[in-house]
Design a protein that fits this description.
- By secondary structure, this protein is of the alpha/beta class.
- Helices cover about 45% and strands about 15% of the residues.
- The chain is built from seven helices and five strands.
- Strands 2-1-3-4-5 form a five-stranded parallel beta sheet, sandwiched between helices.
- Helix 3 links the parallel strand 3 and strand 4 (about 100-105).
- Helix 1 runs parallel beside helix 5 (about 140-155) and helix 6 packs across helix 7.
């Protein structure tokens, strides 16, 4: 069975969202086990609080390097350690063998009286993402987050052996989905674990909508 390790980073203010994400992974595993894939979620709460020679944050950063996917959620601030985890994932990705990086910004209402100095860290991080030409994904609630992330899993690890054949009876929505999934794998599957048939990709792109 193939194990896909997912590291989840976020500040304490999104504790409930982290819990919802963890429950989502548990539910998704029932589906992915049928494809001989296990989703293994890694969060900082799972680490021992015992002192280590290099420091706990070093342990977290090493765990990131061992993961296939790095997910970061943020809202009104970006903590120092969360930012360090993001930079660790980014540095590892730059080597060509790092995790896929996803950033999810909770776009929700907040009272102006609740805004603190931490908001500067949020603005600085958004500027950092623009510098990297990375477009953050927004979510309004945990259901929205779950739907978006589950679609990304399909793009990365969906059944390659599944039917990507296009016939006259194939709905346009399915053609568009094939073009997105195959195009994503062709561009971003650095390790080459999901081989793309050029004929399937070409046909999907040629017949896809705008």
């Amino acid at each position: 069975m193939r194990v896909i390790k997912i590291f989840l980073a976020s500040s304490e203010e999104l504790k409930e969202d982290r819990r919802a994400f963890e429950l989502m992974i548990g539910r998704l595993n029932k589906h992915w086990r049928q494809r001989d894939i296990l989703l293994d979620l890694v969060v900082w709460e799972y680490f021992l609080d015992a002192m280590t020679g290099a420091g706990l944050q070093k342990e977290y950063n090493q765990a990131i390097r061992d993961c296939d996917i790095f997910v970061m959620m943020f809202f009104t601030k970006v903590g120092r350690y969360t930012l360090e985890e993001f930079e660790a994932a980014l540095a590892d990705m730059a080597t060509g063998d790092g995790p896929h990086i996803y950033t999810y910004f909770k776009n929700d209402f907040i009272l102006t009286g609740d805004i603190g100095e931490g908001i500067k860290s949020l603005l600085d991080f958004k500027a950092r993402l623009r510098e990297l030409q990375h477009y953050v994904t927004q979510y309004r609630n945990t259901e929205d987050l779950q739907w978006q992330f589950s679609r990304q899993l399909e793009m990365l690890y969906g059944d390659v052996a599944g039917s990507f054949e296009i016939t006259d009876a194939t709905p346009q929505a399915k053609i568009d989905e094939n073009a997105l999934v195959l195009g994503y794998r062709q561009l971003f599957d650095v390790g080459g674990s999901q081989a793309v048939d050029p004929k399937h990709l070409g046909a999907a792109v040629q017949k896809a909508g705008s």
